[in-house]
Design brief:
This protein is an alpha/beta fold and 868 residues long. It has 28 helices and 37 strands. Helix 19 links the parallel strand 28 and strand 29. It is globular. 50% of the residues are buried.
């Protein structure tokens, strides 16, 4: 069936509110939980065109893999990957299923392993089997709204009853339709000596939240761990398409596992084909009588929803009022923006298939990254059998992988999965379905055709390690690695021996991860995306007991439109921390951090300079009073929240590192406070008052003196102010700085250090625009301004990415011109190395800054200097 011009005109006429009121196009992600159903030629295109006229912008997440069965297009893993992508993608507030159909139940376990505990607000519209998915998601994520209504390509979408269309249109506009009152077709009530009070007249009633569900899928939902229906719910069931007595047996199974324990009443919609076991057709009235007596619940018959002509939209969680013979249906449900899932992790963890081990075999696709190698190391330390694959792996990660006993497979080949035989796969966020050359990743395509569970590395951390631990999550645009390493060092000095995962190599440990105390983790919390199927930040998986908010700036231009979008993710992190009864440690000197911490957290320890802290009202704050640079670091004077002034030496340089250290010290106090059971059990007014009082008290049990002593033994992090070598009074340093602010603070710290050390030569900055943000033009002006402390600037080549248009790509020559005569841009990094060697003179200090290896230039230059 296709939509005729007259039908389209009629649909447009009946959608007057939409065409008149929608001025900003609403983005819809068309999702395919059951795959793509074949339709008559031209149907999909005409429907898309009509929706475009109504003000919607459609984006499809279609399956590409062939079906492996007869009832769903695309494999279960592929459909779960695409749905997870749509659910975590911040661009699409509305997801609309392309069909009903079978196959939804097989993706739930895979989806659970991919999703974080916090999603952006979403609306999902589905029908038939998709009600299982909609109810599951709405139960798991309170900020997801499920609307049980026609799928987007239902031929009857615009030709059903006018009431259906008007209500759906109003919901799509983001408005709330007026409640609708219906007279019931029939009702059945359990036998009892006294009738329920609400049966006495129409003036008395019972009320509860609506749960819309396909009757054939109810038993599947009842088997999902942790899926408990809302208290006092009114359960709407439609489309029973099986033998009546088979349905009654499934009712028994659900009753025995407590699925109906919170249900007040059941409302039956239209049913398709429900014969008795003798073949005689049944009616909804007969089924209502049988179900009512079995469950001892009122059962109403209301065939205005289901698979007949009437497809009344139903909103999960909306209020329903039942009286003697009437049903009042509303369409509004509370949906808190920053709601956190209460589901427990590890519900669907894979088991070993080999029989030789109790732990599953885990394969890491993209194992060579810093984070991936660290997580692989945790799995290896915990006794898992692991394998991995990647492109060529260079120092220092090659040594890290050798140390944990992994010899990675080189290249992403389909044979890797056959050879590794994994029970689970952890996917790096750099892995995409197609690379920058638009060639397919054959290993990932093989995974999509398999049924092996997929995890991002932050999801794997949460499910296998973090869900029952105390977790300190260090977040911010800058300073994460140093602060995380510093805190892990301090806790080690206090005898806590924490487990940790750091996006670098702390010199005190010589490795970026450790599994020591399984109940205490210190984690670098990255705001970059988690995987191709999870477009949200890694830190939303980490369930923090303590969340450090260091600073917030615009970064990661490939996934964030602006800094406001990044702020929203930090709000979600704070919400996640508060949901665990946690404590936020916040930088008072960052305006964005200050706003978020004051608005979304009522338990905050602050840190900052004296002028920063002065902006707050009665803060519990660690205050930086002064710092004095020395040849080996700096001496820091700070003030504790109870007013005591303290002094400690540090082997770091720069104000930014003094503040990083204070964030770590404040986090020690936060953990100490959280150990008090009365403070960690909730965030009530009494608990909040107790927290504020306790945070300002000099608690003798808090080992502050021992922590300050440990500050002086922290050696820093590799590739942070790291000396590669000194030859002929020329110093070569390697540093990770890759953002304009980080470049500016790093060079400022170098200037202060060189002055304190009495070094008189030039400061030469060499920058590699390698990462996804810096290869773009979005921060080009800020980049040019960030080299003010350097005497000479050498700019490396801009990495090639064919996915970017020419006017989106960083213009290296334009940056050179903006900096002025002291700058030079190179299209070839080898040429840069040669020119550097010829330019340098005794007394110069060269700082290489890159988020990658800079093609090995720091080591190459020093070797050439040493052999000249």
């Amino acid at each position: 069936m296709t939509i005729s011009k007259s039908a389209a005109s009629s649909a447009l006429a009946s959608s007057e509110a939409m065409t008149d009121n929608i001025r900003v196009r609403t983005r819809i992600a068309v999702v395919h939980p059951s795959g793509i159903l074949s339709r008559p030629p031209g149907f999909t295109e005409e429907r898309d065109a009509l929706l475009s006229q109504l003000g919607f912008e459609l984006h499809h997440f279609p399956t590409e893999c062939p079906s492996e069965n007869t009832f769903a297009a695309g494999t279960a893993i592929e459909r779960a990957v695409l749905l997870s992508h749509a659910l975590t993608n911040r661009k699409y507030p509305l997801l609309w299923a392309s069909r009903g159909g079978s196959g939804v139940s097989e993706i739930l376990a895979a989806l659970e392993n991919m999703l974080p505990p916090v999603l952006p607000p979403k609306t999902f519209i589905g029908f038939s089997d998709n009600s299982l998915l909609g109810c599951y998601l709405a139960l798991r994520h309170p900020n997801l709204r499920y609307i049980h209504a026609n799928h987007i390509y239902d031929p009857a979408l615009f030709s059903g009853p006018g009431l259906d269309s008007r209500i759906l249109n109003t919901l799509l506009e983001g408005q709330v339709p007026e409640p609708v009152l219906f007279r019931v077709g029939a009702a059945a009530f359990p036998l009892s000596a006294q009738p329920p009070p609400f049966l006495e007249s129409r003036a008395t009633y019972q009320e509860g939240p609506l749960v819309p569900l396909n009757a054939c899928l109810a038993q599947v939902l009842s088997a999902v761990p942790g899926c408990t229906l809302p208290s006092g719910n009114i359960l709407f069931l439609e489309d029973l398409n099986e033998d009546v007595y088979r349905f009654l047996r499934s009712i028994d199974a659900m009753r025995l596992n407590g699925f109906f324990s919170q249900t007040q009443a059941i409302v039956l919609g239209s049913f398709s084909n429900c014969p008795f076991n003798n073949g005689k057709p049944s009616s909804e009235n007969e089924i209502a009588e049988l179900v009512s007596q079995k469950l001892r619940l009122p059962v109403y018959v209301l065939p205005v929803f289901g698979h007949d002509r009437w497809r009344l939209p139903l909103v999960f969680g909306a209020r329903v009022r039942l009286s003697l013979d009437e049903v009042l249906i509303s369409f509004d449900a509370a949906r808190p923006d920053l709601a956190v899932s209460s589901f427990k992790a590890a519900s669907f963890l894979p088991t070993s298939s080999s029989g030789s081990s109790t732990k599953p075999r885990v394969h890491f696709t993209g194992i060579g990254g810093t984070g991936m190698a660290a997580v692989a190391g945790l799995f290896a330390a915990s006794g898992f059998s692991i394998s991995g694959s990647d492109g060529p792996i260079y120092p220092p990660m090659d040594k890290t992988l050798r140390d944990i006993g992994v010899k990675p497979l080189v290249g992403y080949a389909a044979e890797n999965i056959i050879q590794s035989r994994p029970d689970a796969v952890v996917l790096a966020n750099v892995v995409s379905r197609r690379n920058a050359e638009l060639k397919p990743n054959l290993e990932f395509e093989a995974l999509l055709r398999d049924s092996v569970p997929l995890f991002s590395f932050p999801s794997a951390l949460r499910h296998f390690f973090l869900h029952e631990a105390r977790n300190v999550v260090v977040s911010g645009t800058h300073g994460k690695t140093t602060t995380t390493s510093f805190l892990a060092h301090l806790l080690t000095g206090l005898g806590e021996n924490p487990s940790f995962v750091v996006g670098g190599t702390p010199k005190n440990f010589g490795i970026g991860f450790a599994l020591r105390n399984p109940t205490l983790f210190v984690l670098e919390g990255d705001e970059y995306d988690s995987a191709l199927f999870d477009k949200g930040p890694k830190f939303l998986h980490y369930e923090p007991t303590v969340a450090i908010l260091n600073n917030i700036e615009f970064d990661h231009a490939d996934i964030y439109a602006d800094v406001e979008a990044i702020e929203k993710e930090f709000e979600r992190l704070v919400s996640l921390c508060m949901a665990r009864g946690g404590i936020v440690v916040a930088n008072a000197g960052d305006a964005r951090v200050r706003r978020i911490a004051q608005a979304y957290a009522n338990r905050v320890l602050w840190f900052g300079t004296e002028s920063d802290v002065a902006q707050l009202v009665r803060p519990a704050a660690w205050t930086l009073v002064s710092l004095q640079p020395t040849r080996s670091g700096m001496i820091v004077t700070l003030r504790a929240p109870w007013g005591e002034q303290l002094t400690c030496p540090m082997g770091l340089f720069g104000t930014h590192n003094a503040l990083n250290a204070m964030a770590a010290i404040a986090s020690l106090q936060a953990l100490h406070l959280h150990a008090d059971y009365s403070l960690r059990t909730g965030i009530s007014a009494a608990s909040q008052k107790a927290f504020e009082e306790r945070a300002r008290i000099n608690d003798s049990s808090f080992p502050l003196a021992k922590a300050l002593a440990a500050c002086g033994t922290f050696e820093g992090v590799k590739r942070r102010f790291e000396l590669v070598g000194l030859h002929a009074d020329i110093r070569v340093y390697d540093d990770f700085a890759h953002h304009p602010t980080a470049i500016d603070t790093t060079l400022a710290a170098f200037k202060a250090y060189l002055s304190a050390a009495g070094v008189q030569g030039r400061l030469v900055a060499c920058f590699d625009p390698r990462n996804a943000t810096m290869r773009r033009r979005v921060l080009q002006n800020a980049l040019a301004a960030s080299f003010s402390h350097a005497d000479l600037v050498f700019l490396g080549k801009v990495a090639v990415d064919k996915r970017l248009a020419e006017d989106e790509t960083l213009d290296g020559l334009a940056v050179q011109r903006s900096i002025g005569e002291k700058a030079r841009y190179f299209e070839d990094n080898e040429e840069m190395c040669s020119v550097l060697k010829a330019t340098l003179r005794p007394g110069d200090t060269i700082v290489f800054m890159s988020s990658g290896s800079f093609d090995g230039l720091p080591q190459k230059l020093f070797e050439r200097l040493a052999h000249s």
